[in-house]
Amino acid sequence: METIEQLTSKLVQGGIGRREFMRGAVSLGIAATAAGLLADKATAGARRRGGTLRLGLGSGSTTDSLDPGMIDSPFNQVWSFGCLRNSLTQIAPDGSLAPELAESWEGASDARTWRLRLRRDVEFHNGKTMTTADVIASINHHRGESTSAVRSLLDPVEQISADGDYVVVRLSAPNADFPYFLADQHLAIVPEVDGQADVHSGIGTGPYRL
Prior knowledge:
Elements: H1 4-13, H2 18-27, H3 32-43, H4 74-84, E1 89-91, E2 97-99, E3 102-107, E4 113-118, H5 132-140, E5 157-163, E6 166-171, H6 178-181, E7 192-193, E8 196-197
Antiparallel strand pairs: 1-2, 3-4, 4-6, 5-6, 7-8
Helix pairs in contact: 1-2, 1-3, 2-3
């Protein structure tokens, strides 16, 4: 018969599940309540690859698109923005602006030119490392003749370019809130392919892949 130490080791390593651990612990004479506490303590903070996420969501439609510029419902917000993709910045629980794919940003004194330093070693689901080209293509996808819901939000962008690890954005008028705009759910970063944003594959940098 296995010892409680052996059972615990198997549980932490993913060799057995919680139910099997509980049955083994109880067979060793450990009370069910105590066995449950042991299982909780052993698995606290443990990370495991795989598993299944099931969500019950309304508002899904046959016209839904993988294009982040077409997000128009809570259903699309959850799977696209919450699961598959990330933006350059994010709004923290206290309402402040926090980094996400951009680790820092700085504006010129006139608030017309913004420099965003990208996080290094960020990978897309396909293993490609995120670069300034991906960010530029992702933002340009919503400009010009785009049908994106946030096209007007980016109308003030006159130029967007790369400078090493930085993405440089030049605006037509001062805007001290521009970094907040980049947290918008539509402005998720996707891979660049042949100069265009790959908005239809579902590939992103988020915690789940399609």
